[in-house]
Specification:
The structure holds 2 protein chains of 2 kinds. Chain A is α/β, with parallel strands linked by helices. Chain A has helices at 37-53, 70-79, 94-108, 127-135, 188-196, 233-243; strands at 2-6, 9-11, 19-20, 25-26, 33-35, 58-64, 83-87, 112-116, 139-149, 152-159, 162-169, 172-176, 199-202, 211-217, 226-228. In chain A, the strands form 3 sheets. Chain A has a 9-stranded mixed β-sheet with strand order 11-10-9-12-8-1-6-7-13, with helices on both faces. In chain A, a hairpin with a 2-residue loop joins strand 9 (139-149) and strand 10. The longest helix of chain A has 17 residues, at 37-53. The N and C termini of chain A lie far apart (49 Å). Chain B folds into 2 domains: 2-172, HUPs (Rossmann fold); 196-319, 3-Layer(aba) Sandwich (Rossmann fold). Helix content of chain B is 26%, strand content 27%. In chain B, the strands form 4 sheets. Chain B has a 7-stranded parallel β-sheet with strand order 7-10-6-1-4-5-11, with helices on both faces. Chain B has a 5-stranded parallel β-sheet with strand order 14-13-15-16-17. Chain B has a two-stranded antiparallel sheet with strand order 2-3. Chain B is elongated, with a radius of gyration of 23 Å. Classes of the chains: A alpha/beta, B alpha/beta. Chains A and B meet through helix 3, helix 4, strand 9, strand 10 and strand 11 of A and helix 2, helix 3, strand 7, strand 8 and strand 9 of B. Strand 15 (226-228) of chain A pairs parallel with strand 17 of chain B, so a sheet runs across the interface.
Amino acid sequence: MKILVCISKTPDTTSKIAFKNGNTQFDEAGVQWILNPYDEWYALVKALELKEKDPSIVLHLITVGTADCDPVIRKALALGGDEAIRVNTDSTDSYSIAVQIAAVAKEGGYDLILTGKETIDYNGASVPGFISELLDIPYVSLAIKFELNGSVATIDREIEGGEEVNEVALPVVVGCQKGMAEQRIPNMRGIMAARTKPLKVVAPIAVDALTSVVNFELPLAKAGVKLVAADNVAELVRLLHEEAKAI
Amino acid sequence: MCVLIFVDQTEGHIKKSSYEVLTYGVKLAAQIGTTAEALLLGTVNDDLAALGKYGVSKVHQAANETLNHLDAQLYAKVIAEAVQSIGATVVVLSHNQTGKAIAARISARLKAGLVTGAIALPDTSNGFVVKRTVFSGKAFANVNIVTPIKVISLNPNSFHVAVGEGSATVESLNVTVDPSKIKVTAVNKVSGEVPLTEADIVVSGGRGLKGPENWGMIEDLAHELHAATACSRPVADSDWRPHHEHVGQTGVQIAPNLYIAIGISGAIQHLAGVNRSKVIVVINKDPEAPFFKAADYGIVGDAFEVVPQLTAEIKKMHNN
């Protein structure tokens, strides 16, 4: 049994978001990079739990990016996993990224591919869907619980106002979110072991992006509070309904 | 050439988010000078011809019961087939639970560029540029789709539904539907309490409420709004409310559409946990409370008088 966990680096949640070059590029100055929390806390840790139950499982991690992703993938290896693969390209279009992962996955013959439900920077929620289509295998998104019995997975996924339980035979792609696993902190033994684990750098395959970012915008600063008199609560309800469209 | 609008359903009914997408798709079709048609997978009890009221001329239905449950692989295959047989150039759907599962699959299958989480109609003056949220709502990106066919998923609650008159013709779509590889063994709907991190609306109380015995009015307001309840750190530390309700830097961080802060002064640690909320309402008797600087709407007044009135006014609105 082989599991592939997809890892992305993202700016730390407390990062100040700014852009440069006429708002066409994310300004990385002073940004701390972390493992995308959904990839780390839910996808990777779930894979570790499965491997702890069944040590014969082969667990590979993959990221798509240039050498500046290495510290983040080493951190992921410190949590666990047998080896990591980095596809050496700096594409940002999520389709192009998924094409690279799908190519490696096809070659590796993985039974289970886990990703976070989305990254906290681009929030596209599209990479796992792309991978599953490129491999033509089932996909369960927004997973909150995952159990494996032999070659059949039982997955709880989020639906509007509740959960749905799906049973699906492997192979499958699963997009993971809160509930899948508990957060872990790498220990010193893991950090030391990660230094010697293989990190394979592979060349990208040719792919044309389907989209391109023209520019970024920051939200306008709050216009200032609109005060409503305490004896005119109906006006607040009207503003929330008609102007803010919040209720 | 047309805009094809994917209409999502559950348990025999069309989802609310689909009506937003219908309006979006119809406006987009008018903008690029084409027609808007809808596509529904599975069977529903709703009257499909009535979707004409939202501006679509035709509703294509693949009335196969296998499609009543989401299987992303099957859905993408059927939708992609429909796009090709109908000759659609744009596919629009909601960025809801279903959209997150199928949008990328449709895109990959058709080699059609995808923008998820769109919040506005595209700018078609130079290319096909769609605005979407990025960095968890801290910024926006304008993304150009460079392929002949485009797929757009619309963020829920970002487009107002427009209803008019009209009736659509309903046509059955002849597609082959493979057996699903996904077996749905249970559907569990959450009843009662709304989970805090997933809530669209959060009603939060602070020390200004004076004691746990006064939380009834917070719960009444939350109930009327289908909102989750939350509290500030001092309230959790005093055991007035459970710790899982504590929002702030060291508690839960939330980003609802609407955050209503009652009797909370707005310390910087509290703001860090809630400043990604789309709309912030502050009710506080102290006009100098720092929270007013981070708020969109505010009432300077006594919570014990304002909050019950607010609940009553919202109830009135819901009954109209």
